[in-house]
Write a structure and sequence with these properties.
Blueprint lengths: L1 E10 L2 E11 L4 E5 L6 H8 L7 E6 L2 E2 L5 H7 L1 E4 L11 H7 L9 H11 L1 H5 L10 H13 L5 E5 L7 H16 L3 E6 L2 H7 L2 E6 L2 E7 H6 L1 H7 L4
Parallel strand pairs: 3-8, 3-9, 6-7, 7-8
Antiparallel strand pairs: 1-2, 1-4, 4-5, 9-10
The chain binds adenosine-5'-triphosphate (ATP).
Length: 234
């Protein structure tokens, strides 16, 4: 579904992503893990068209994305739930959700709003409240619900568990599995390596802009290097 090949991305003279390659097959949960500044967010922003690569290619369902504008990438079937959630605090929950469907003209929007409320019932209860009153976990649900409103084939989640309580983190991660079962392919960026690898069919470890390790979620969870560096074991 998605092929990233020899991707390089720079901020001026600073190379943030230094030639990475990875693939996401339809139906998979694939995770990119790594510490702060490894280049994970930069990679997702480049796939979304918000940044342009200095080298390499990004192919989604056979189509090159590197010259496609961000607002044209969403209708192709890629949704991005960004780092920090970026909800609109003064808009209501429902207005935030509807913004996720901005590029659609079909008649299925009401049904998808219903599906978002099924996924996260708290959003229905608070549909008329300004989203800025939400807790971090609730805002994360809203950001995921909003991303799903574009009816994506590929959902990219940037650190959904950041700053959440263990219970809320579990709830969010369970939803990742639910969305996969419902047929959405997921590219998951996480610092919480354990939670991500447990659910991923494939994982890639990024360090200062390079992929240093890759394998199945299970292989990486069992890898001594990963356990030492990311799971806090001696
Ligand atoms: P984090 O979890 O902290 O977001 P990350 O793996 O997502 O980490 P990026 O945010 O992609 O990493 O950052 C990769 C590198 O690019 C870092 O060295 C960072 O300082 C640098 N960087 C990110 N955004 C910018 C920017 N707007 N201008 C200059 N450098 C940037």
């Amino acid at each position: 579904m998605l092929e990233v090949k020899d991707l390089e991305v720079a901020y001026g003279k600073i190379k943030a992503v230094k030639g990475i390659s990875f693939t996401v097959e339809e139906g998979e949960v694939v995770t990119l893990i790594g510490t702060n500044g490894a280049g994970k967010t930069t990679t997702l922003r480049t796939i979304s068209g918000l940044l342009r690569p200095t080298k390499g290619s990004i192919t989604f369902q056979g189509r090159d994305l590197t010259t496609v504008a961000p607002h044209e990438i969403v209708p192709l079937g890629i949704a991005h739930s960004p780092e920090g959630r970026r909800i609109f605090p003064r808009l209501t929950v429902e207005e935030n959700l509807n913004l996720g469907a901005f590029s659609r003209k079909d008649k299925g929007i009401a049904a998808d709003l219903e599906a978002a409320y099924e996924l996260f019932p708290i959003l229905r209860e608070r549909r008329s409240q300004p989203a800025g009153t939400f807790s971090g976990g609730e805002q994360q649900m809203l950001a995921m619900g909003r991303a799903m409103m574009s009816r994506p084939k590929l959902l990219m989640l940037d650190e959904p568990s950041m700053g959440l309580s263990p219970l809320m983190m579990k709830r969010i991660m369970t939803t990742v599995s639910t969305l996969q079962q419902q047929g959405t392919t997921i590219l998951l960026v996480e610092q919480n390596a354990q939670a991500a690898l447990k659910r991923a069919s494939k994982g890639y470890v990024l360090e200062v802009g390079k992929i240093v390790l890759s394998g199945s979620g299970k292989e990486l969870l069992e890898s001594e290097d990963v356990r030492k560096a990311y799971l806090g074991e001696d």
